[in-house]
Specification:
Mannonate dehydratase; iron; binds manganese (II) ion; TIM Barrel; EC 4.2.1.8; mannonate dehydratase activity; about 350 residues; alpha/beta; single chain; 13 helices; 4-stranded antiparallel sheet
């Protein structure tokens, strides 16, 4: 197991690499090129520069999050073939510089939805929350709220230049139901997995966040059955999952421990996002501190299921709260994620020494 930390790049992240290097047990960076729009090839020289910068700090770059899938691929438009060829070239370019895992998602329009990015907890810290009443607002209102509370930072999947077209984007999906979206996914994954196998890269799809339909948009990465379908449609270790314990648990009907056990045994989880959530009522929740006692998930059990089923991939702590006066991109401050990583490393050490 390698513990890694998400970083947006020198220009787009307030946290210096050296600070990340100082988190005990942190091996590497989950990196990205923030300025390459979905559908374009990631240039070798930019990947090389990112890798060199990260390695200079004593960290590794083996995981990328995310290489975004162009909307035309998800919609199944004729133009998709060109974007798929570009995606394959990006995979080759990343592999050439030692990248082993690429996290991505297949969510229409929005990468993820939270209704409050500054939900205040009793201890005065702030976190992201999702409350059903919040999505009774229009998509435009939600976008405005997200932009207003994310300060100077663009959030991943929330690029303003793309989301000005949100109404058109949502309309474009009116003829795409779950069945059609699955067909479009199958077309994409069948096209790219041979390239991944050739160059030794594992694709790792992130579950939908939240894992149920919103704004009438289709969703195909919601539960155990969807993950099983994805793993079966191209049966290859290169066709894997980023198991995000927070996202998958946002539907209380999902048994995160069973899902982790099954797909770790099937060798299909090269990357895990490990975080805790706390249900407020029904499906409403906020992103809790990682510690089990603070949320609704049993983090010991999550790490135990991974450990005992032979997990040998990458783990990163997921979103953290804003604490100790830190400001920055919601979910991606230094302090609370560093605490989360230390806690997860502690659980892992206890599991290793248990026998
Ligand atoms: Mn996640």
């Amino acid at each position: 197991m390698d513990m890694v930390f998400r970083w947006y790049g020198k220009k787009d992240d307030s946290i210096p690499l050296q600070y990340i290097r100082q988190i005990p047990g942190c091996k590497g960076i989950v990196g990205m090129l923030f300025d390459i729009p979905a559908g374009e090839v990631w240039p070798k020289e930019k990947i090389k520069a990112l890798k060199e910068e990260i390695e200079l700090s004593g960290l590794t770059l083996k995981v990328i999050e995310s290489v975004n899938v162009h909307e035309d691929i998800k919609l199944g438009l004729e133009t998709r073939d060109e974007y798929i060829e570009n995606y394959k070239q990006t995979i080759r370019n990343l592999a050439e510089y030692g990248v082993e895992v690429i996290c991505y998602n297949f969510m229409p329009v929005f990468d993820w939805i939270k209704t409050d990015l500054e939900y205040v907890l009793p201890d005065g810290s702030t976190t992201m929350a999702f409350e059903k009443a919040g999505i009774e607002k229009s998509p435009e209102e939600i976008i405005r709220d997200v932009e207003n509370s994310s300060g100077d930072y663009t959030l991943p999947g929330w690029e303003p230049e793309r989301l000005v077209h949100v109404k058109g984007l949502i309309d474009a999906y009116k003829d795409v139901d779950n069945k059609k979206l699955r067909e479009n996914f199958a077309y994409f994954i069948k096209a790219i997995i041979p390239t991944c196998e050739e160059v030794g890269v594992k694709m790792a799809i992130h579950p939908d966040d939240p894992p149920y339909s919103i704004f009438g948009l289709p969703r195909i990465v919601k539960n155990r059955e969807d993950l099983d379908w994805i793993c079966t449609v191209v049966d290859s270790p290169s066709n894997g999952i980023t198991l995000c314990t927070g996202s998958i648990s946002e539907d209380p009907a999902n048994d995160v421990y069973q899902i982790l056990a099954e797909f770790t045994q099937r060798n299909r989880i090269p990357f895990a996002h490990v975080r805790n959530i706390k249900f407020i009522q029904d499906k409403d929740f906020y992103e809790a501190p990682h510690l089990s006692a603070e949320g609704s998930l049993d983090m010991y059990k999550i790490m135990q299921v991974l450990h005992d089923n032979g997990f040998d991939g990458f783990i990163r702590p997921d979103h953290g709260r804003m604490i100790w006066g830190e400001t920055g991109r919601p979910g991606y401050g230094l302090y609370d994620r560093a605490i989360g990583m230390s806690y997860l490393n502690g659980l892992w050490e206890a599991l290793e020494k248990r026998k």
